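Input for the complex:
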Amino acid sequence: MTHSKLRDVAERSGVSISTASRALNNRADVSPATRARVLRAAEELGYVPSSLAKGLWSGSTKTVGVVVTTISNPFYANVVTGIESVLDREAYNIVLNSSHEDPMRELRAVRLLLEQRVDGIILAPVASEPTAVEYLEKNKVPYVLVGRRARNVEVDHVVCDDYSIGALAAEHLIKRGHKRILFINSSQNYSAQLRQEGFCQTLLEAGIDQGPEWVRPVRIGQRVEEVLGAVLDEGLNPTAIFCFCDQMAIDAMRELKRRGVRIPDDIAVMGVDNLSVGEMLDPPLTTIDVQNSQMGIGSAQILLRKMQQHDGYSEQINLVPRLVERAST
Amino acid sequence: MTHSKLRDVAERSGVSISTASRALNNRADVSPATRARVLRAAEELGYVPSSLAKGLWSGSTKTVGVVVTTISNPFYANVVTGIESVLDREAYNIVLNSSHEDPMRELRAVRLLLEQRVDGIILAPVASEPTAVEYLEKNKVPYVLVGRRARNVEVDHVVCDDYSIGALAAEHLIKRGHKRILFINSSQNYSAQLRQEGFCQTLLEAGIDQGPEWVRPVRIGQRVEEVLGAVLDEGLNPTAIFCFCDQMAIDAMRELKRRGVRIPDDIAVMGVDNLSVGEMLDPPLTTIDVQNSQMGIGSAQILLRKMQQHDGYSEQINLVPRLVERAST
DNA sequence: TATCTTTCCGGGAACGTTACCGGGAAGGTT
DNA sequence: AACCTTCCCGGTAACGTTCCCGGAAAGATA
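Predicted:
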């Protein structure tokens, strides 16, 4: 149960703790003979150094915290994979937390990560009120936002231009001749608000003035199927549905199919994220590419720089969205 | 940059470090007045206790390591989500590592987790040689295997019966009248071998004696598209393809579509895992349900028990696979 | 008043590791 | 022979926290 420690290695090889430490860390001031003895003793004991003690001493844990809404959404799975691919090379470990779109859980996750003394944090913020971000700011921990923007603009982030996403979607659906377009949005987070602005503004400019009932947020604990079902039951009769992300679009498609609604003949559906599975769906899903995996990679690279050189240099990357037309619209 | 510590809180509230510690941990032997003073000082300083120091003292980090092949595969994303849902309630943190089907990376991941002094490990083993498992065994860390079995049978695990999976698939495809069935398998891991046994044995019993060229492993760094492409180019002419998992089945479908092959008219496709997106594909994917999310939940529950009571009691869960027939076969 | 509880608090050791510093032994230089 | 390097090595403090133990002050009992 209890791991063997440096002192055990030292005793077994007949040297002091300091010497054992130097030998294991390839420091100078150790003769080849004793170094060999120490290494062999460590091997025999199955010695595994404690990152806890190291971290306590050095002030760095070689660990990065990542907070997303849920890893079940392939979008965030890809983001995390991207982050991992960058941090792995630098021997950083990743501590994963999920907020499930709940600001309280987000705050709790950040708090736990700070207790763990992670060297940095990558966060996909859920709250429109930047409480978690403020908390991070106060604690002076290097951090980067990913996928979603925070209201506070000078914060480092890697996102895709949200206003353009909303505008692009509206533009496309208008061009397809739609006049009654439902927007099933995420709730709370600032990116959702920006997409909504871009979406509604573009509709207005095209002379389509829909009431607020045409934008439906999916709140915590709610499922897309419920929200969409309610809309259809109350007879809003949309000809097209724009969803906050592909995952939600897929859920919407499932509900539509269940009800026997034909896509896109009766109702068109589009999403955002360009998940790779989108092209394999029935029908293939029209979406907006947001350079998904680049987000993870980019945010990790920025965080690496911030952790290594502590200049206050700020970096914000706004990726350009691109429409991907397929058969669902 | 540098966090405020317990000593800072103590000084600011005019008490000793011991008293500050007791006050913050709701211990007795602190007067209400001083407790309030300490709490206020901690609040004002934005004090965040260090899990490092706590862990060093207590021997527990309230942290669990999880090693999967890649979180990009929704199967493992669901497993991790299940694990998370259980461990979150007990305030455990999760350290995530990916092996990418590479035994060396798997071993490195386990090693890193041990250095971090995680309280337990959940592993989806990649190697058929149980080196990582042996390493875990030697270090006496509580651990559970998930999703894949190890050759060593007395190890705790939560898996779906692999032999049955292979048999079920073969049975189904035979019933559909197929005689030339390609198996695109994973490589190395023991579960893959068991599925292959079940698959081939069932074919043999049905009088179908295919050569070894009908089972194709996808090796590290290889893509399903390449392997399948090579098979088709060499003119093996299968009428059905059974894939190790849905993710691979989707990749296979993509390649088939790219080549203009009709599914299932020219070639039928089936997978394993019953990912939720399967029913939305074109065509909907025949698959085998393996109680995906139950795996994560179950493994986390077992691990929790092992971490809390250190009896050597061993637990192995073999879930029952279930065929899900859809239009792709 | 003397003794005994009770209540509250502080000192110190320990968890496992690393860096700093000082010192002994061996060998080379004047 | 005296001194100076060079090469190795060990002791010690420190990282931030918790628990154990001892002790002071105040109140209760004789």
